[in-house]
Amino acid sequence: MRHRYFEFNGKLFRFQDDLDITEDFFDFVLAHGDDALRAAQMMEQDPDHSEMLASLIEQGLLEKVKGRFRLTPRAVSAMQRRALMEVFSRMKRGTREGHVSPDHGGPGERIEGNRPFEFGDPASELDLLATLRNTLARQARSVSDPTGSLLPLRIGNRDLERYETESRTSCSTVVLIDQSGSMGRFGRFMQAKKCAMSLIALIRQKFPFDTVDLVGFASVAEQIEESRLPLLMPKPVTIYDPVIRMRVPLNKTEQAPPHFTNLHMGLLQARRILQRRSGDNKMIFIITDGQPTAHVKGDYLYLLYPPSEESHYTTLQEAFLIARQDVRICTFALTDDYWDMDWLGFVNELGRLTRGVTFQCASGDLSSCVMESYLSGRRKRTFIS
Question: Alpha-carbon distance 303 to 310, whole Å?
Answer without folding.
Answer: 11
